Amino acid sequence: MTKIAFKTLGCRVNLYETDALASRFKAAGYDIAESDGEADAYVVNTCTVTNTSDQKCRQAIHQIRRKHPEALIAVTGCMVNHRKEELLQSGIADYVIDNERKSALFDIIDEHFKSGHSDPEGYDRDLFSYQPAFDTFHTRSLIKIHDGCNNFCSYCIIPMVRGRSTSRPAEDIYNNVREVVDHGFKEVVLTGVNMGRYKYENTHFEQLVENILNIDGDFRMRVSSIEPDQFSDHFLALLQHEKMAPHMHICLQSGSDDTLKRMHRFYTVAQFRDMCQRIKVARPDFNLTTDIIVGFPGETEQTFKESCDFAREIGFSHIHTFKYSVRTGTKAATMPDQVPEKVKNERSEVMRQISLENKTKYFEMMQGHCQRMLVERIDGKGIARGYGENYLPIVAEGKGLERNTFINIKLGEIIHRENEEKMAFKTL
């Protein structure tokens, strides 16, 4: 069998698309190899959200070419949309496929192996023509509901590489969920570039979530990274639903109103605080995580302190800390008072320490709580690992444990894995 390997960088939308593509290749008889193993073809699904992302993508592509000079390499994803000419001129990849034609990647590569050539530009543009992913790299099933963004935050290049906001037809989403649940998946994760702005015909995001929660089957639903919106009382009531996982990653970016204005974000610190407080009233143990950018142009010691104070106040159990990265073509790239790299590094470390403090407090608060753990893998010693509904990592030991099943446990000792930031629970 022809072997194909996948290397995915970036967001959950990329992970969803890779899972769907890999499943399509496997269904057609291809052998799916490890990303660092031997293969006849390699697909690199790229990210371009920061300069570091571009650098990691380049390194991944060059490393594959050095180790496997005769293999076919197809590069796709956001870096293609951002730096397509650069990639084409470098000649390092056999095929360079933009986001709009990524769903046709199977046909492009399959045609290459059948005829020796394929023309990516000859395929239609389609953001949602991905088949349900049954044979994936994950026990959770990612469900893409939305692509693109209309916000045009001053620092962000995503609207330029993902295009304008586009929502997937609601009935396609429901059918996708039913198919993966029927196939045995126990958790579905909604993903998209700006999911809260989902709207297809008369169905908005809250209605979509409610309809998915009411689909038959023994599964739970998780909302992945989402932009902050003034969620309605109806949406907050859905947080009580037995299938709704009490965790959301809500992107803050800054805890300073001054910085939020220059970022062209569409909310204030007070509005974000009110949203978090309402969520906690609806579900006191709700797990809130977030993104924060440090070193945005014009960020002072005072506005950075405001971000730190707000991060502590809300108590995010994890803060994905980004150093501001200049993206050519965005408004922030030409703003005055760019922050030196040394200062960005120092502020990143401060924010990471706040994240660790918050995580420790949240984990300690959750000790003794009951969780419904989804067993994701079992090692050779019979030790199971997985996540509870609050997206808390759990290690469990016991007889008869099976992968991709729910077990009811109580959170016990907190353990550290690899480093102090990687924490997990043992079961009582």
- Indicate the CATH class of the largest domain: Alpha Beta
Termini gap:
46 Å
Instruction: Output the structural class.
Output: alpha/beta
The CATH architecture category of the largest domain equals Alpha-Beta Horseshoe
Kindly identify the CATH topology of the largest domain.
pyruvate-formate lyase- activating enzyme
Task: Write up this protein.
This protein is α/β, with parallel strands linked by helices. The protein has three domains: 3-122, Methylthiotransferase, N-terminal domain (Rossmann fold, 3-Layer(aba) Sandwich), CATH 3.40.50; 141-363, tm_1862 like domain (pyruvate-formate lyase- activating enzyme); 370-427. 35% of the residues lie in helices and 23% in strands. The chain contains twelve helices and 19 strands. It has helices spanning 12-27, 51-67, 78-90, 105-115, 158-162, 170-182, 205-213, 233-238, 257-263, 269-282, 301-314, 341-366, and strands spanning 3-8, 31-33, 41-46, 72-77, 95-97, 141-147, 166-167, 187-192, 199-200, 203-204, 220-223, 247-249, 287-294, 318-323, 370-378, 383-387, 393-397, 406-416, 423-427. The strands form five sheets. It has a five-stranded parallel β-sheet with strand order 2-1-3-4-5, with helices on both faces. Helix 1 links the parallel strand 1 and strand 2 (31-33). The longest helix is centred in the last third of the chain and has 26 residues, at 341-366. The model has no long low-confidence stretch (mean pLDDT 93).
